[in-house]
Design brief:
Blueprint (H helix, E strand, L loop, with lengths): L5 E12 L2 E12 L3 E5 L6 H9 L6 E6 L2 E2 L11 E3 L11 H11 L4 H14 L15 H13 L5 E5 L7 H18 L2 E6 L2 H7 L2 E6 L2 E6 L1 H6 L4 H6 L4 E9 L2 E4 L2 E4 L10 E6 L5 E2 L9 E11 L3 E9 L5 E9 L9 E5 L6 E4 L5
Parallel strand pairs: 3-8, 3-9, 6-7, 7-8
Antiparallel strand pairs: 1-2, 1-4, 4-5, 9-10, 11-12, 11-14, 12-13, 14-20, 15-19, 16-17, 16-19, 17-18
Helix pairs in contact: 2-3, 2-4, 3-4
Bound molecules: adenosine-5'-triphosphate.
The site of adenosine-5'-triphosphate has 12 residues, from strand 2 and helix 1.
Length: 360
């Protein structure tokens, strides 16, 4: 594994289904040993892109270069990958042993070698000794472990995971994602996982590719995606974000629904309409004595109890009855009640500004 070596290069990949463009010219470089997640709303093209990489559905145009070789027109059986689907896709009439051994037998390996490899693989995915069971005798999580063992059996250079955890219940999902991540780390196999679950992407991926309507919106580490979203779509899609329309008055001030706030604005955006983004966890309740920049008196409209914290919906009405509504996270604070007026602060450093024309 060499994390500086390019392993997979996609160049201007387009996929059309008749008139409909599912992938609209995507380019992306994935490095050796990386764990990449394709994340985006339903229908944005994640699975289509994964299938183009696997050669299961060829792209309409564009290049797929794997390990220095142009595989753009290669059928899937000529490509080097293992794949796990959401629906396990095990052969129901074959034992666990035969399911895992499937790819090895196709390669005509000696029986003894296969038996020992299957034993090792089942040990590796935490299912030792289950060779003679049938898929129907296993839980969903166990079946997905078998599917993983089968995908890894031929030691592929690329592991493709298409929503591998979404059919499992929440508890199994959480521990399997830790195990898959640990296994990927240990093997160093370049991995791409499709998911629409942002928690899964944030916890497992080295880098996340955020997709929307067949294009890539941003590629970055989980921290970059969360803390420095490239646009309003990413800001709104990852985590929870307040997005408010505003007018940019100068490089240091904006107006939203009659309220003027301090901000840091690029010169070229001054005078324009924009979207102001601030995360609920970045808004704080101010002390009475504290007179800070961007302090605002707001009315508490609703309180959602979320266990460790509460999400408080507040609004501010100026003299013209323009209303600004946003949510904020508050750690256990029993003094906050619906209808009460509180003072909150929107710290300048947590306000992000995006051009308004982005579709959300
Ligand atoms: P999900 O999370 O719901 O699986 P996705 O991001 O994986 O979504 P894709 O399955 O890649 O989305 O589909 C992208 C778009 O292409 C969708 O609008 C879908 O309806 C369309 N599409 C996918 N396969 C075909 C097909 N065989 N024929 C026509 N349109 C298709």
């Amino acid at each position: 594994m060499n994390k500086h070596k390019k392993y997979l290069e996609l160049s201007d990949v387009v996929k059309k289904y008749g008139e409909f463009t599912a992938l609209n010219g995507l380019s992306l470089t994935i490095f050796d040993g990386e764990f990449i997640s394709f994340l985006g709303p339903s229908g944005c093209g994640k699975t289509t892109l994964l299938r183009a990489i696997a050669g299961l559905d060829l792209q309409t145009s564009g290049l797929v270069i794997q390990n220095g070789k142009d595989v753009s027109d290669e059928p899937s059986n000529k490509r080097d990958f293992g794949i796990v689907f959401q629906s396990y896709a095990l052969f129901p009439n074959l034992t666990v042993r035969d399911n895992v051994a499937y790819g090895l037998e196709n390669r005509k390996m000696p029986k003894k070698v296969i038996a020992s490899k299957v034993e090792d693989l089942l040990e590796m995915v935490g299912l030792p000794g289950s060779e003679s069971k049938y898929p129907a005798q296993l839980s969903g999580g166990q079946q997905q472990r078998v599917a993983l063992a089968r995908a890894l059996a031929t030691s592929p250079g690329l592991l493709l995971l298409d929503e591998p955890l979404s059919a499992l219940d929440a508890q199994v999902r959480v521990y399997l994602r830790k195990e898959i991540k640990a296994l990927q780390n240990k093997l160093g196999v370049t991995t791409i996982m499709v998911t629409h679950d942002q928690e899964e992407a944030l916890t497992m991926a080295d880098r996340i590719v955020v997709m929307n309507h067949g294009v890539i919106e941003q590629v970055g580490t989980p921290e970059q995606i969360y803390q420095q979203p490239a646009n309003a779509f990413v800001a709104g899609f990852i985590g929870t974000t307040n997005l408010l329309s505003c007018q940019l008055l100068s490089t240091s001030s904006l107006s939203t629904a009659g309220v003027n706030l301090a901000c840091e604005c690029r010169v070229d955006m001054v005078g324009q309409k924009a979207l102001m983004a601030i995360r609920p966890e970045d808004i704080r309740v101010s002390n009475d004595s504290e007179a800070s920049v961007n302090s605002l008196d707001v009315t508490v409209d609703d309180i959602e109890y979320l266990g460790a914290f509460s999400r408080v919906l507040v609004s501010h009405e100026d003299g013209l009855k323009l209303k600004t509504e946003f949510s904020m996270n508050v750690m256990r604070d029993l003094s906050i009640k619906v209808g009460k007026v509180i003072t909150v602060t929107l710290p300048v450093e947590h306000i992000r500004l995006f051009p308004e024309e982005r579709s959300l």
